[in-house]
């Protein structure tokens, strides 16, 4: 199984991703860093603990939960989105949690997880990139040795979801997003809105999982999430599972088509362009003249095979076979 260190802002689709991992014996989440984003860092921490409390399994009990960032590197106070993810980040659910048990305030615990799993470890970022970028500032050599990163973020030549051009995770902290992309090369897979908007869970899919699966919460969470999206786009067929698709990607490369491109994040403090992700598809020859230093490229998913997504998602989430 792939060992995953997860950085997230534990809202609805983050939570579905965590449930997907728990149902999938090919993915072991060995640590989670909870950041502000969809909701406050405190709510994100409480949500991870609440979800974990629903499973009485040894393996899950000892997943290390680490307190992440409270505000972006840009310094301003974040704006949460309770209208999308619910007041506490779990739709209508108010998570009771038993205090701070099993939560570490020691950021160095992330180093211990990385050193324990080394080349086996995959880092998956499904929230703002503030904590991940902080790790590059504190432990640059360690972070450059990580084999692979999967990042949910960006929108390339398609509409954004926070502004006309910007996606929420990159918009939330453009400084952190650029810092991570400027310190990695050839080992980052970006799963942008280009493909996550296609990774739809329809009401029929959700009802089936609710009936046959043994997973709590899926219907409650996704019915709430779908209500928000349907209100804004009556034609949308279901909930776009941004974070689930990103976690799925670590084992299902054949679900996607990729391009390896240099990426820049617009560093405006406010306005439409803040956090816009720009990929450069000019032939390398043009860029080489301009480039003062090596051109860093990242693997970006532009195509999704929906039937493959559907089969894999339904098989894992319902515990049935969908071949
Ligand atoms: C991203 O932002 C959040 O709303 C979701 O959890 C996802 O990580 C989508 O732009
Ligand atoms: Ca998220």
Automatic annotation (TrEMBL):
It holds the Pfam family IU_nuc_hydro. Keywords: Glycosidase, Hydrolase. GO terms for cellular component: cytosol. GO terms for molecular function: purine nucleosidase activity. The keyword Ribonucleoprotein does not apply. Residues 4-310 form the Inosine/uridine-preferring nucleoside hydrolase domain. One of its GO terms (biological process) is purine nucleoside catabolic process. PANTHER family: INOSINE-URIDINE PREFERRING NUCLEOSIDE HYDROLASE, URIDINE NUCLEOSIDASE. This is Nucleoside hydrolase.
